[in-house]
Design goal:
Elements (H helix, E strand, L loop, with lengths): L2 E5 L7 E6 L10 H11 L6 E6 L2 E7 L6 H21 L4 E6 L4 H14 L18 E5 L5 H22 L7 H15 L2 E5 L1 H6 L3 H7 L7 E8 L9 E5 L1 E5 L20 H15 L5 E11 L10 E4 L5 E4 L6 H11 L7 E6 L3 H7 L4 E5 L3 H13 L4 E3 L17 E2 L7 H10 L6 E5 L5 E2 L9 E2 L4 H9 L2
Parallel strand pairs: 1-6, 2-4, 2-5, 5-6, 9-11, 9-14, 10-11, 13-17, 14-18, 15-16
Antiparallel strand pairs: 3-4, 7-8, 8-11, 12-13, 15-18, 19-20
Helix pairs in contact: 2-3, 3-4, 4-8, 5-8, 7-9, 8-13, 9-12, 11-13
Length: about 475
């Protein structure tokens, strides 16, 4: 894992990135080099410039400080990603960030982009010889705090952990393996982890989770994680719920393989996000009380798999007419949301790769969000989403969408028809809550088919940075 450092001097031999609104030669460059920079940067279309000075790469990023801060942060992250990619090609090991603006947050953002872009998943390629060479990123500043750098290291590491979990195939990471990964995180970071096995899940009458698991040879798990600071600001806990479908065939409502089932190892990205977020929150010792719940199983068409038309009795005693076994995520989340009632939560947020409708609406650019959360929590969550560029687009949560979930023979059905699919999924889940609630659908940004800046091809780790910033700001 790449390390982000804080120093107060620029090394004369280090590859350097300069963030500036008007370049000043404070790096001790020869006049001819400085003159070249000055002439190139006068050109109207020049926003950045990279120069190889005797094997030392110097990159300059021009920022317009009149731009909205979140846009500037994202510009710096993306430039950091580009720089890291270029320096890895040249087998560089260190990069130095020098900021000539008054916004120290831009240095942190550029380091974040470089660190996140340096991620690679190569553990199953023992012959791979092109591993990234970058080992450290040094921020040169007297304004940036060591605490900020430490937290940035933690959240980048946690994001990498989430990516690793999502990138693992199901023959290596089943429901039990996922739960054990959380247990290992808890031991390292300092939060408690309790894992319920199938016997305990059956005793709790978690009908949704058990019905999805009925087609699998592997047993389900239900993981309860808890971190409580002695200085926790919240009287009642925040609860995170993450979907943990470690592989989704669609069950008897089988998915087509091309462009669908072949990437369904990512269907536990919500579970990975809340587990890794707990790691970051506990490692940074944030002053909050947070509980995370992850129901986990795979969804297969074998054995006694649940079939369209089945009536499932959920943990809360209500019944669901299951009409599509590929709408399985809501079935396991429903039991977890009911379980959360025992904590009388300040706010519960679930996060899941839940619907194709969410991806159809926003592509991979954002998260679909909706719910009953009060404005004070919702505004903070959405503000954090724009700050870290894991943007939430709030959808309407009108009561009439619940009418689409009515069943003739059960309390509700698990699909609502071809329209407003992401919203009807949220309304289905709302039935199992009696507390302030917000639902995040990450079907689009959780797993992408091509590299996008600091988001690698495959798992992105979406949600970890969002939750960390949200809880840090409580």
């Amino acid at each position: 894992m790449i390390e982000i450092l804080l120093k107060n001097k620029v090394s004369s031999a280090t590859h350097t990135v300069v963030i500036t609104s008007k370049f000043n030669n404070e790096l001790g460059l020869p006049d001819k080099v400085n003159d070249y920079f000055a002439s190139e940067l006068k050109k109207a279309d020049k926003k950045s410039l990279t120069y190889n000075y005797i094997g030392r790469y110097i990159s300059i990023l021009i920022v317009d400080q009149k731009k909205e801060i979140n846009k500037l942060l994202e510009q710096c992250r993306r430039f950091g990603a580009t720089t890291a990619q270029e320096l890895n090609v040249h087998k560089a090991e260190e990069i130095c960030i020098y900021n000539q603006t008054k916004s120290s947050s831009l240095s942190l953002a550029l380091a974040e982009g470089a660190a996140l872009a340096n991620y690679e998943f190569i553990k199953h390629k023992p012959s791979h010889k092109n591993a990234h060479t970058l080992k450290s990123i040094t921020i040169v500043s007297s304004d940036v705090l060591q605490k900020e750098v430490s937290e940035l290291n933690i959240v980048c590491k946690a994001t990498g952990m989430a990516r690793d979990l999502v990138n693992e195939p199901v023959n290596i990471l089943n429901a039990e393996d996922l739960a054990n990964a959380f247990k290992k995180m808890g031991k390292e970071a300092g939060f408690t982890v309790e894992i319920f096995n199938k016997k305990k899940i059956t005793e709790l009458k978690m009908g949704g989770l058990l019905s999805v698991n009925a087609g699998s040879v592997d047993e389900p798990t239900f993981t309860v994680m808890e971190y409580k600071s002695k200085k926790a600001k919240n009287k009642h806990p925040f609860v995170l719920v993450g979907k943990g479908v470690v592989y989704d065939t669609g069950g008897l409502s089988l998915k087509p393989t091309p462009n669908s089932m072949d990437s369904m190892k990512c269907d536990m990205a919500g579970g990975a996000a809340v587990g890794a977020a707990m790691y970051a929150i506990a490692s940074a010792k944030l002053n909050v009380h947070v509980i995370a719940l992850v129901p986990a199983t795979d969804n297969r068409p074998g054995f006694n798999a649940f079939a369209p038309g089945d009536i499932i009795t959920m943990m809360d005693g209500s019944t669901v007419e299951m009409l599509n076994s590929d709408a399985e995520g809501r079935m396991i989340l429903a039991d977890a949301l009911h379980y959360a009632k025992r904590y009388k939560p300040e706010l519960t947020i679930d996060i899941a790769t839940l619907t194709g409708s969410a991806m159809a609406a926003l592509g991979t650019s954002g998260i679909v969000g909706m719910g009953t959360a009060p404005a004070k929590h919702k505004e903070k969550l959405i503000a954090s989403s724009f700050k870290v560029h894991e943007r939430i687009a709030e959808f309407p949560f009108w009561d009439d969408f619940s009418d689409l979930m009515k069943s003739d023979i059960a309390d509700q059905k698990n699909i609502g028809g071809p329209l407003a699919g992401s919203i009807t999924a949220g309304k289905f889940l709302e039935k199992f809550t009696d507390y302030p609630y917000f639902h995040l659908d990450i079907a689009g940004p959780a797993f992408i088919n091509a590299k996008d800046g600091y988001r690698p091809k495959g798992a992105t780790g979406v949600g970890v940075r969002l939750f960390f910033d949200f809880f840090k700001n409580q």
